[in-house]
């Protein structure tokens, strides 16, 4: 067990003993999903915003964006705010 894991477990135990978590089961499930699906390399929201127009145009053309831009695809799966931006941009481009 590495040092980070030991410190996290110790802090978690003392913190959880002293506090009550006020999150819904749905929120807890979403948080666990995000933790479990964390990758070694990830893009920030700013990174994704810089690539979002290219990603959206590729998706509209029917290209396999999951294979071509996997980090953007993963981020959109994990980040509801960026996914909302993508969906809005996609709707706009489909309307043109």
SSE blueprint:
Blueprint: H1 3-18, H2 25-36, H3 45-60, H4 65-68, H5 70-78, H6 80-95
Helix pairs in contact: 3-6, 5-6
Secondary structural class: mainly alpha
How do the SSEs run, as a string of H and E? HHHHHH
- Could you tell me how far the N terminus lies from the C terminus, measured between alpha carbons in angstroms? 55 Å
Strand proportion, as a percent range, falls in: under 5%
Amount of helix: over 70%
The number of helices is: 6
| Contiguous runs where pLDDT drops below 50 for at least 5 residues | none
- Average pLDDT score: 84
Largest sheet: none
Q: Give the beta-strand count.
A: 0
Question: What does this molecule look like?
Answer:
The structure is a single chain. The longest helix has 16 residues, at 3-18. This protein has 96 residues and is an all-alpha fold. It has a domain at 40-96. The chain has helices spanning 3-18, 25-36, 45-60, 65-68, 70-78, 80-95. It is built from six helices and no strands. The mean pLDDT is 84. The N and C termini lie far apart (55 Å).
Brief characterization of the structure:
This protein has 96 residues and is mostly helical.
Label this structure with key terms:
mainly alpha, about 0% strand, about 100 residues
């Amino acid at each position: 067990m590495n040092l980070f894991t030991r410190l996290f477990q110790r802090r978690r135990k003392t913190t959880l003993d002293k506090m009550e978590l006020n999150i819904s089961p749905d929120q807890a499930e979403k948080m666990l999903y995000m933790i479990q699906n964390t990758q070694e390399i990830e893009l920030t929201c700013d990174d994704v915003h810089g690539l979002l127009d290219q990603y959206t145009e590729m998706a509209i053309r029917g290209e396999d964006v999951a294979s071509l831009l996997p980090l953007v695809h993963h981020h959109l799966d994990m980040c509801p705010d960026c996914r909302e931006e993508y969906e809005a941009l996609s709707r706009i481009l489909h309307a043109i």
